[in-house]
Design goal:
The complex is a heterodimer.
Chain A (H helix, E strand, L loop, with lengths): L3 E4 L2 E4 L4 E8 L5 E7 L6 E7 L2 E5 L6 E7 L2 E7 L7 E8 L7 E2 L3 E5 L1
Parallel strand pairs in A: 2-11
Antiparallel strand pairs in A: 1-3, 3-8, 4-5, 4-9, 5-6, 7-8, 9-10, 9-11
Chain B lengths: L3 E3 L4 E4 L4 E7 L6 E7 L5 E7 L4 E3 L2 E6 L4 E6 L8 E8 L5 E3 L3 E6 L1
The chains are: A mainly beta, B mainly beta.
Chain lengths: 112, 109
């Protein structure tokens, strides 16, 4: 089973709202990732967690705040987003950081 | 120069045809190589890893040429369901994937 789940599937929020995206995997993977993908572009890495610790932040603005409560869960907290943050947010996981990554279905975010 | 470059296409082929396309990568120290498939408004899904010896999975054949730093994908006997964007992905170091911009393939009836 190579399933990564994400909720919600779709999210519409205003610029003053606070919301969270959730990602879950039960494959025993110890590395988890957040990506942002705009239309007709490849995914862009945002954050990497390894063994529940943030190992990489690709210079992401502080209005995006990741959290890894345990080895199966990864959250992305959103606050004061801008319309240009509208995109597909993809979570991925891999056994270790150097291993093949498997993507969740994504959350399609629209910021009004 | 982009780390991974792909011909964006589109490759528009009839059912049953063979279609092939390449990607080139700039980092000679890259360790792992993959083809992912992405359907419109869906997530990337791993199609196959690419090994130095070349590998085949059903109608799909992938090749790696380390000397020339390119990867290829060949699809035989194309099906309508093969219509998608194919992402060339290179594992540059222990965490970072570099994605090509994708090659769009449309298989027509």
């Amino acid at each position: 089973d190579t399933e990564v789940t994400q909720t919600p599937k779709h999210l519409v929020m205003g610029m003053t709202n606070k919301k969270s995206l959730k990602c879950e995997q039960h494959m025993g993977h110890r590395a988890m990732y957040w990506y942002k993908q705009k239309a007709k572009k490849p995914p862009e890495l945002m954050f990497v967690y390894s063994y529940e610790k943030l190992s990489i932040n690709e210079s992401v603005p502080s209005r995006f705040s990741p959290e890894c409560p345990n080895s199966s869960l990864l959250n992305l907290h959103l606050h004061a987003l801008q319309p240009e943050d509208s995109a597909l947010y993809l979570c991925a996981s891999s056994l270790q950081q150097q291993d093949t990554q498997y993507f969740g279905p994504g959350t399609r975010l629209t910021v009004l | 120069r982009k780390e991974v470059e792909q011909d964006p296409g589109p490759f528009n082929v009839p059912e049953g045809a063979t279609v092939a396309f390449n990607c080139t990568y700039s980092n000679s120290a890259s360790q792992s190589f993959f083809w992912y498939r992405q359907d419109c408004r869906k997530e990337p899904k791993l199609l196959m890893s690419v090994y130095s010896s070349g590998n085949e999975d059903g109608r799909f054949t992938a090749q790696l040429n380390r000397a020339s730093q390119y990867i290829s994908l060949l699809i035989r006997d194309s099906k309508l369901s093969d219509s998608a964007t194919y992402l060339c992905v290179v594992h540059d170091n222990d965490y970072k994937l570099s994605f090509g911009a994708g090659t769009t393939v449309t298989v027509r009836a």
